[in-house]
Amino acid sequence: MSPELQMYLAQGIHGLAYGMLLFLVASGLTLIFGMMGILNIAHASFFMLSAYLCVTVLNATGSYWLSLFLAPLGVALLGVLVERFMLRRAQASGLGHIAELLLTLGIALVMAEAIKLTWGTEGLQVMAPRSLAGLVNIGGLEYPIYRLFIIGLSLVVLAVLSLVLYRTRLGTIVRAAVSDPDMVSVLGVNTRRVFMLVFGLGTWMAGVAGVAAAPILTVFPGLADQMGMDAFVVVVVGGFGSLFGALVAALFLGELNAYGIQFIPKLSPVLMFAFMALVLAFKPTGLFGDRE
Amino acid sequence: MKRHLLWLMAALAVLIVFPFIFGPLQTNLMVRFAIEALFAVSLNLLLSFTGLLSFGHALYFGVGAYGAALILTHLEGIPLVLAVLLSGLAAALVGLLLSPLLVRVRATAFTMLTLAFGQLLYVLCSKFREVTGGEDGIMGWTTPPLRLPGVFSLDVTQPLYIYFFALGLSGLGILAMWYFTKTPMGSVMISIRDNQKRVDYLGYQVVLTKAVIFCLSGFFAGLAGAIYAVFNNLVSVGGVLHIMVSFQPLMAILVGGIGTFFGPILGSGLLLMLEEATQAYPELAQMISGLIFIAVVLFLPGGAISFGARLRGWWQKRAYLRKAREIAA
Amino acid sequence: MKISKRLLLLGLIAAALVMASLGAHPALAAGAAAGFDPKAVSDMTGFDPTKYENPSGEVVKIGVLAPFSGDAASVGQLYWATSAWVAADINKRGGIMVDGKKKKIALIKGDTMGKPATTKQAVEKLCLQDKVDVLWGTSGSHLTAIIQAEAAKYNKLHLNSHSLSDNLMEGKSFTPYTFQYIWPTYSVGNTLAKYYASRKERKFYILDQDYVFGHELAESFKAGLKQYVPDAQIVGEDYHPLFNKDFAPYLTKVKASGAEVIFTGDWMPDSSNLIKQSRQMGINTPIAGIFLDDINALIAVGPEGSKGMVFASQMLINYQDGIQAKWHEAWKTWPAPYNTALYEWLGSTTGSYVESLYWLLDVMQRAGATAPDKVIKAWEGDEWLGLIGEKLTMRACDHRVVRDTYVTEFVSPNKWYQDCAYLDQLVTIPAEFVTLAPPKDSERCK
């Protein structure tokens, strides 16, 4: 492979890896919105919290795999509590989206400060586990294994999620509860518990993304702001609530970023928002969304 | 009505003597209050009266602020009031240009579209540093005095005069918006919030009304931005176009009381007081505001403006219960 | 109004000149200042920035303007540890002799939150309510510009130890109340360019943050290369957004360009992410910059990943005795958040902050006053020996410092940190190569 071709191939894989990471962050957000109609501004804060928990578990046990298991679980638990004791009440306030917006914004602020009080304000670093460190040779191109791992991890999460939602009884109930909660609760299903579960699942996915991103990014108090906007754009462009849309949008934006930097670096950060405005101007519900 | 007028006169009197009693520090705080209140009320026109949640209102604020900065930098000798009004008009024009896209959408789609345009302008202004100065922004222009030839010429870089300038403009703007909600078109606006389809069937101009509201709301947000520019003598992308600039008035509306006209003004004041109070404990400032937002949503969804009514209701209930108990006994 | 104030100032300056020539101030009369002796730091055992308390009585008040809340709160923490150190040290010595008596130092926080409007409000509070004597801050040239304008408005001294912009002391922006202690961007670019004149690397890739400072720095580096390394090649030039996430696409371009050095002005977290992601991708091209000393990132990539990086600074402490030893000893007892490797030694950032405040207080003592006009008079043209014995001159006409600068290559092992490469031998770049010329349009500099 010629060096030039290698470079373009590398950019393609970079776009794929970053796109899949974006998808991992955004999927939980779109799941929560699609299933519950909640605009969770604090989503990226759960992502950040998980990265911090990952640092703690790693420092305590030295095991990345254990932190990949524990940190998202801890974050999901917090998510369930937030749904049970706050969001439910906010939804009953009759203020609609704005109540959730302000509530989750408040939660985001409190979480950021609580994180600073617990872990300090400095940038903390996590490295990829030894088994995933280093490079692999793809047809002459040396590529970091960890980035390939992110692609794989996202695919696994996507597969599990699709299976659960579309192939199990639980998934059927969840989807039914979403489209007609009253009917489902008449049938004897505890829809409130279903929503709690969905919110927990969404924050768990943010947690997985947090642990996945920690070895690439710096774990610092601005991590949520750094990642949050991109995740939001993915959800909006893909169409609110559409998992498939989020996947397509994340991959497209990942590639747009990589090849944008390669060919038109001066405009690359503008591209994302220009694309978002363009999509919304023609299709206000996003590429694959059907909810307003 | 007479009592209301009396209250209004009293409030006006307090505002007039305020800068003479308090120092420049408090006077400047009032200027920020005037700016943020005007900004919040302009957004509230969309949120509480048309039922549209915008995540990109900084767009208009930013256009107004940059408009004022650019006009005052490049057009020497332009009268101050004209510069500020032109900046507001520039923001209104942006509202007009975007309205063909914005009128079509509702609910979340509207929110997202405003977010997209707000962010787009933010990154564009960061990029085009030649015009906007990027993160550094535009600063150091000479602000012309506020003058009526032959009558007065006031240096608005002095706390006293910027105070009257900002409060006057902001007050007039808020008054104009209040008046608008009472006009026939204002009634149509409120009906759109309640049931857009029915308004349409009844033969009212939904699209036109919405477009007018976008321009109006944009104009006053731009006006707030222009006052901000004059007051700070500096405009930078981070200060006027950042997403948090869009969130600030939303918080003011909710803290003050959504669905009311005057709630956002109260909310802006409360948020500024909160910021002042936490200055001494900066490490806890965000934690405290976060907790307050959570508390408002959970326990006082009507905002601070509903607090009095709540208290009265609670008191009446207590008195009623006491009476009932007495009767029972 | 303005003219009369200037006249008054001139009169005072003239009066002070007469006093000085009469020998009222021996230090001034002697020409060169005694300077600060880093070995004279008081016994600082037991000093703890979290427990710092302002003294009572008559004090010299320093307003510390920093982001104490929000995403950049770590920066505020640095400001606090360093200013509290200097205040505690001077207070242990009994304060400084000003206005006819010994006065201790008090610190008052002003939270900028990184926002212009808040910064303005914080400065006004410090000036009008707390009545500080000096404003000290802050990161971000747009915020510094506000402080500068406000300081002039309220006749307060302003020491800029943090904002590197070239333009702050030029044209209409200049005010006699502000002193720019920190080196300007021009010096940074030229320091590194001059350094490479005596090295073999010739292929440079510029990867910088896409905002005013990033571009300004790149321009100064390119101009410096043209002058000092005419055969240097810029093999690539990219500007990434602030708080960039994925550096991989940029790094792939760097690799393809055959660059021998990545030049960057990035600060945390961009600098850390750049270091980390490049090493993860197997790209070990040396990185040259001025914010590469984020110790957590260096430790993350280990000795192998961090060696060979080229680090420039206006002030690098390369000894472990004197103030460095006292700082290190005190640090051992500090609780969170100051118990981390970042605070273990006085680094280039913390060292600079500390030095700037010592100089300020030294000047005040020699001026024998806190009044801005007297301090301005004493500081203009002042020659002073800094923390590492280096000579600093406060240029009178534009209030910028003329000084040598330093470059080091990170090596492992080193005497500072076991887990990463760190500074070793210092290369001194003489002041004449890196000093920004006085502004041409300035009346004062003619």
Question: How would you describe the overall organization of this protein?
Answer:
The complex is a heterotrimer of chains A (292), B (329) and C (446). By secondary structure, chain A is mainly α. Chain A has one domain (3-221). Chain A contains 11 helices and 2 strands. In chain A, strands 1-2 form a two-stranded antiparallel ribbon. The longest helix of chain A has 34 residues, at 3-36. The N and C termini of chain A lie far apart (47 Å). The mean pLDDT of chain A is 89. By secondary structure, chain B is mainly alpha-helical. Chain B has a domain at 22-243. Chain B contains 14 helices and 4 strands. In chain B, the strands form 2 sheets. Chain B has a two-stranded antiparallel sheet with strand order 1-4. Chain B has a two-stranded antiparallel ribbon with strand order 2-3. In chain B, β2 (146-148) and β3 (152-154) form a beta hairpin. The longest helix of chain B is centred in the N-terminal third of the chain and has 27 residues, at 24-50. Chain C has 446 residues and is of the alpha/beta class. Chain C folds into 2 domains: 32-183 and 319-402, Rossmann fold, CATH 3.40.50; 186-313 and 406-434, Rossmann fold, CATH 3.40.50.2300. A 7-stranded mixed β-sheet of chain C has the order 8-7-9-10-11-15-16, with helices on both faces. Chain C has a 6-stranded mixed β-sheet with strand order 2-3-1-4-5-6, sandwiched between helices. In chain C, strands 12-13-14 form a 3-stranded antiparallel β-sheet, with no helix packed on it. In chain C, β13 and β14 form a beta hairpin. Chain C starts with a helix and ends in a 12-residue tail after the last helix. Chains in contact: A-B, A-C, B-C.
Name given to the CATH architecture of the largest domain in chain C: 3-Layer(aba) Sandwich
Mean of pLDDT of chain C: 90
Overall geometry of chain C comes to globular
**H/E order of the elements of chain C?**
HHEHEEHEHEEHEHEHEHEHEHHHEEEEEH
Record the strand order, biggest sheet of chain C.
8-7-9-10-11-15-16
| C-alpha termini separation of chain A | 47 Å
Biggest chain-to-chain interface with counts: A-B, 44 and 44 residues
Oligomeric form of this entry?
heterotrimer
Please provide the ordered H/E string of secondary-structure elements of chain A. Answer: HHHHEEHHHHHHH
Mean pLDDT of chain A: 89
What is the topology, as strand order, of the major beta sheet of chain A? Answer: 1-2
The helical percent of chain A reads over 70%
Number of domains of chain C: 2
CATH topology of the largest domain in chain C: Rossmann fold
Q: What overall form of chain A do the CA principal axes indicate? A: globular
